Amino acid sequence: MTETESKVVDLLAVFSDLGPASDAVEHLRSLGVHDDCMNIISGVPVTEAMLGRPQQWTNVPRIAMGGALLGLGAGMFLAFVTPFLYPYPIQVGSQYPVPGPPTVVVLFELTMLGMLISTFVGVFLDSFFPNYRPMKYVPEISDGKIAILVECPHVEENKITDALKKLGAESVKPAEAQHL
Questions:
Q1: What is residue 177's predicted lDDT score, i.e. its pLDDT?
Q2: Confidence at residue 122, expressed as pLDDT on a 0 to 100 scale
Q3: Distance between CA atoms of 93 and 96, rounded to whole angstroms?
């Protein structure tokens, strides 16, 4: 390791409640730890607003909109093009070739089906699921605890450890990757 490279601090702090974890996130920011260097691990859903963190942006809405547009296109093809294809031109009495109410149902259902499938696929792609790499985790998270994973190259490990313990961390230990 050269003089310009610094050791990466890799700590996992476990908290029993959301309040002390939120305070710890704020205090870590004041110590110079960026939001990119912190990861909150919880067994229950915790929003960014609960911890005072910036909102995470995702591509799932764009993927869902693309799927909805593809579904709408498929519905339009079925409703407006297939009645005029070679084996299908059936004229029933004085009805229009494209009837209104069934067309609305086909367009709606295929639009929603396209959006549903693309949202499902988008969530998997956006979360990199399944992930076969070893992950940093502690079993206490399954018992309802909240952990803060700090991976930062430019802070002092002792300073971070002491601050987290003072803020109510049950344990602060080096993070180890485990196969889950």
A1: 67
A2: 93
A3: 9
Please check whether residue 4 lies inside any domain of the structure.
no
Distance CA 76, CA 114 (A): 13
Residue 87 burial by Cβ neighbours in a 10 Å radius (0-12, 13-18, 19+): exposed
Residues of the chain predicted below pLDDT 50: 1-4
User: Helix (H, G, I), strand (E, B), or coil: what is residue 46?
Assistant: coil
Residue 19 belongs to some domain of the structure: yes
> According to the 3-state scheme, what is the secondary structure of 95-113?
CCCCCHHHHHHHHHHHHHH
pLDDT for res 111: 98
Number of domains into which the chain is organized: 2
Whole domain around residue 41: which residue ranges? 9-56+135-178
